UniProtKB/TrEMBL annotation:
Pathway: Amino-acid biosynthesis; L-serine biosynthesis; L-serine from 3-phospho-D-glycerate: step 2/3. This is phosphoserine transaminase. It comes from Oryzias javanicus. PROSITE patterns: AA_TRANSFER_CLASS_5. GO terms for biological process: L-serine biosynthetic process. Keywords: Amino-acid biosynthesis, Aminotransferase, Pyridoxal phosphate, Serine biosynthesis, Transferase. SUPFAM superfamilies: PLP-dependent transferases. InterPro entries: Aminotrans_V_dom, Aminotrans_V_PyrdxlP_BS, Pser_aminoTfrase, PyrdxlP-dep_Trfase, PyrdxlP-dep_Trfase_major, PyrdxlP-dep_Trfase_small.
Amino acid sequence: MSSNFLSRPVDVSKFGLIFAGAQKNVGCAGVTVVIVREDLLGHALKECPIVLDYKVQVEMNSLYNTPPCFSIYIMSLVLEWIKNNGGSAAMETLNKQKSSIIYDIINASNGFYVCPVDSACRSRMNVPFRVGKKEGDEALEKKFLEGASKRGMISLKGHRSVGGMRASLYNAVTLEDTEALADYMREFLKEHQ
């Protein structure tokens, strides 16, 4: 798991192992959360590095190697914040609300904004979209990013393999932040359509 970790409730009993790069919703880059079903402990492959032998990790109380203390501390603060704000169920409600705001603008833009992902497969965490037309308009996308930057909105440029825009709506992104992006998208649409 990565982007979706702690963005919604998950029945961990349905998994033998969850390996989550938690930097998206839970803490600093480099923090990893591993949840292993007890009956799977002690079944590491001989070629497997000892750090990935979870029986060893359990026996050493997760201290086989020097842990990233500051990152773990930050993660504990984030987990406390999630708990105090209603837990993963509340995060799911908030993430549905935030992603709906952006997808609704895209869907109502008459093709000015286009999400290349089928609606049944869309992410609540990352909303990719093109500006101007289905395959994107390079000049308009550049203008969009420049205008966003002037408003303090950074990192909207899409993944290098996909292009376009990508609005990341991780747990730390507030409803107000999402509304600010939505307002800008409406303004940009009105000005350039």
